[in-house]
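Lecture 7, part 2: worked example. A protein chain together with phosphoric acid mono(formamide)ester.
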Amino acid sequence: MNHFLTINDISQAQILELIALGKQLKKDYQPHSQALAGKSIVTLFEKPSLRTRVSFDIGINKLGGHSLYLDQQNGALGERESVKDFALNLSRWCDGIVARVFSHRSLEQLAEYATVPVVNSLSDLYHPCQGMADFMTLSEHHHDLSKVALGYVGDGNNVTHSLMIAAAKLGAKMVVVCPPGCFPDGAVVQQCQQLAKQHGGELLLSNEVSALEGVDCLYADTWVSMGDDTPLAQVKQKFMPYQINQQLLDQTGATSVLHCQPAHREYEISSEVMDGPQSLIFDQAENRMHIQNAILLTLLKD
Ligand code: CP
Ligand code: NVA
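Predicted complex, written out as structure tokens:
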């Protein structure tokens, strides 16, 4: 692993190794408490964040490293100077770059020119740290990931893409249910269907929530992603039949619920379910830190 831009870049074995390391870290940081001593990681955000910013910062600290937060007060990435020059400069000072960007292309350019590892902490196309944390969380509750059936419901987006890639590589079943016109990217779907076939998994897409019957876990994300200024109220009518609520939980028989957050309670998920016994949502948020630390340890170990 040189960079971590998408779960596409890693094999099934590497996904499982990272999850195992994430679980080990969760139990005990002591053996790794100086692993990043003397190392500095720049965390760059073009978009807002709570979970990602805090979990990287505190996570890096737990490994003995130092993190430096850069926001966009000096203008968007590539505006004041080229992404290439940005990458070349940063590489002279820091040991790794974590970046949340509007365009996935910016990450590819950072990775092309940086001489230090680059980690994707969300782009328009993928959210791989999220997908890894989600499968770590699923593995804590459903154990054999190849036997898990994950039901994603809502808007087909960056998070959906990373989940589909991870599910396909792990040989899991994934059902993606979206309103008409909101399916995930066609090229990513095709690639995941291919990957699923290769690994003994399955990827199904539908506009009907009835397709979710029998899944183990229901997963929601926001109906409007960062960068899209459409008010939630405007899409409410279209998405409301796709809300995760007690009725959908009962109808599907799912035994766990995930949401990457930030959540809009009573929109994509009811408060009753978010705070209910099937919700793994705050474990999932905690696991962001452990899996990201596993990723950083793996990238920076030499
Ligand atoms: N899930 C997630 O990435 O949350 P933040 O946008 O708060 O970082
Ligand atoms: N799909 C959401 C994920 C937020 C963590 C977004 O891109 O805003």
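The chain has a mean pLDDT of 97. The radius of gyration is 19 Å. Keep this in mind for problem set question 3.
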